[in-house]
Design a protein that fits this description.
The protein contains three helices and no strands. It is mostly helical and about 80 residues long. The model has no long low-confidence stretch (mean pLDDT about 90).
Length: about 80
């Protein structure tokens, strides 16, 4: 994905880091209102297709997302 430099919004650098994060989250929420308009990198689609193919070959190896998230959460504690 190509990145471009854009000017900072007026006053952005005067905000605290927490306020900057809230600003960016609000901006992202506006962008994400129409997910069908968001570009998906080809590499992400390829990974999703590979994982779906793996699941179809061996569905018994799949785990519910909540189980995986619980396991990952225990590793960070």
């Amino acid at each position: 994905m190509e990145y471009t430099s854009i000017p900072e919004p007026p006053g952005f650098s005067n905000l605290s880091k927490a306020e900057q994060v809230r600003y960016l989250q609000a901006l992202w929420d506006r962008i994400a209102e129409n997910p069908s308009e968001l570009p998906v990198p080809l590499a992400h689609l390829e990974v999703a297709e590979q994982r779906l193919a793996e699941y179809r070959r061996n569905p018994d190896q799949a785990r519910p997302a909540y189980d995986v998230l619980d396991r990952l959460g225990k590793k960070t504690r």
